């Protein structure tokens, strides 16, 4: 297991925590997915929780990728379709369906989580602890895979 002695984080620990994007080169990048096509942004979910989200968007919003527990661009494209089109969505997503987990995607997700999953924070476009906890509740409200 590789460890960065400057900050004490290990790649395995960050993967377990979920807020990690792994670039195609294998370098760990903490934060939101950018343009790297192999990036995964689980927003605090473990592998099982991410699989539950993938299974849900597979049946409802056209996800066509593997049920692998890594929320990559295809998973987030399906989530963006959900956030843009679900009739009861309080703040519909209006951006491009591009799979990039940016502030607009997070704000729309936060609005959904606020209305239905107990999120109490601001709609600020940052996936902090409150957003991650509510996203966890969302994931685990879906059937196991």
Automatic annotation (TrEMBL):
Coiled-coil annotated residue ranges, if any: none
Entry-linked InterPro entries: PGBD-like_sf, PGBDSf, TAT_signal
Gene3D superfamilies for this protein: PGBD-like superfamily/PGBD
Name used for this protein in its record: Peptidoglycan binding-like domain-containing protein
């Amino acid at each position: 297991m590789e460890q960065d002695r400057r900050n004490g984080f290990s790649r395995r620990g960050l993967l377990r925590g979920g807020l990690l994007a792994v670039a195609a080169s294998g370098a760990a990048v903490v934060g939101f997915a950018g343009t790297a096509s192999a990036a995964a942004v689980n927003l605090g979910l473990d592998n099982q929780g991410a699989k539950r989200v993938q299974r849900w968007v597979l049946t409802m919003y056209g996800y066509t990728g593997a049920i692998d527990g890594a929320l990559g661009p295809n998973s987030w494209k399906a989530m963006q379709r959900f956030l843009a089109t679900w009739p009861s969505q309080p703040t519909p997503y209006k951006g491009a369906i591009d799979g990039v987990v940016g502030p607009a995607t997070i704000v729309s997700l936060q609005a959904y989580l606020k209305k239905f999953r107990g999120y109490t924070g601001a709609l600020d476009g940052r996936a902090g602890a409150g957003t991650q906890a509510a996203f966890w509740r969302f994931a685990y409200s879906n059937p196991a895979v």
